[in-house]
Design brief:
By secondary structure, this protein is an alpha+beta fold. The protein has 9 helices and 9 strands.
Length: 312
């Protein structure tokens, strides 16, 4: 979440008139995240998050918003979209597709998550994946093997020789990843600590579904483990790891093929965020309020997984 597109008050008032949300009271840009433009919006009827989509076309967005509504209808705690009076979730604002979702209480986790938070997140992820099997829409990943190859090609001329060697080696090691015979379903694919809002140890809800897609369910779990189960020293914390995995498997059991593929899934998940953060570092985007995340964190996680991973 960032601000790349400035929204004037008059434009926002006109936008909100399409929704039954009352009159605008105040709004402010959100600097967290890196992909879309986001504002907190307060009206006489409530509090919302406004997202202007910087990369998605209008016809792509129904998948994300329908998924959020689907999860909310199935008792998954998540941000739910607000429907306009014209019975659509998305309208144009400042030349960009935009949507309004209910603002949740709580906040993302900045410190190391508690054991209880890891358990709740693991359980919720398992339920999301199980419930998601009944979601009728489909969307291919935009961060698959071709994206990895294209991103490595773009980075090789601008990184040092040692890092270039690691990128080439990892790309080769993951060459057969897309051909694994693993369960596929709806994945969040970006369920980091800042995308799960907690009030203490109570989960208020999941946000930011804009990387959601059909992927290996195991990949979604790997993304979560790589962020939620690392200690302050950047090394896998066994206690949090087994707490999260146990809670997850109480909702959705992994099969033998997934257990065998776990090491490469963890590496693919770490590599994906190494690449996107390296790309942002070397090709920064301009905006009013923007945040570029350090790739060193995921380079260290990737190096750790290249040495071995805990059993699933």
């Amino acid at each position: 979440m960032s601000v790349y597109t400035e929204v004037g008050r008059d434009a926002l008032v006109a936008f909100l008139a399409r929704y039954s949300v009352g009159e605008l009271v105040s709004y402010a840009g959100i600097s967290d995240g890196v992909e879309n433009t986001n504002y907190f919006v307060t009206t006489t009827e409530g509090e919302y998050v406004l997202t202007l989509f910087e990369h998605h076309a209008l016809n792509e967005l129904s998948y994300f918003l329908d998924l959020m509504a689907f999860y909310a209808d199935h008792d998954i705690p998540c941000a739910s979209p607000v429907m306009a009076e014209s019975a659509v979730y998305v309208s144009m604002l400042c030349g960009k597709p935009a949507a309004l979702v209910n603002r949740l209480s709580g906040s993302g986790i900045e410190a190391i998550p508690s054991l209880q938070q890891c358990k709740i997140l693991g359980e919720t992820l398992g339920r999301m994946q199980s419930v998601g099997l009944d979601f009728g829409e489909r969307r291919e990943t935009t961060r698959g093997s071709q994206w990895r190859a294209d991103t490595v090609a773009a980075l090789l001329p601008v990184v040092d020789a040692d890092l270039a060697g690691l990128l080439r080696d990892e790309l080769a090691a993951q060459a057969d990843y897309d051909d694994l015979d693993l369960p596929i379903g709806v994945t969040h694919s970006d369920l980091f600590r800042d995308n799960a809002l907690f009030d203490g140890d109570n989960l208020a809800g999941i946000i930011d579904f804009y990387y959601a897609c059909d992927e290996y369910l195991l990949y979604d779990l790997a993304v979560v483990v790589n962020d939620w189960c690392m200690g302050a020293d950047g090394v896998m914390d066994d206690v949090r790891y087994y707490a999260l995995i146990t809670a997850y498997q109480a909702e959705r059991s992994v099969n033998d093929a997934e257990r065998a593929a776990w090491p490469i899934a963890l590496r693919v998940a770490a590599f994906r965020f190494c690449l996107s953060r390296l790309l942002d570092l070397h090709s920064p985007r301009e905006g009013e309020l923007t945040q570029t995340k350090d790739p060193a964190e995921f380079l260290a996680i990737l190096e750790q997984h290249r040495q071995g991973v805990p059993a699933l």
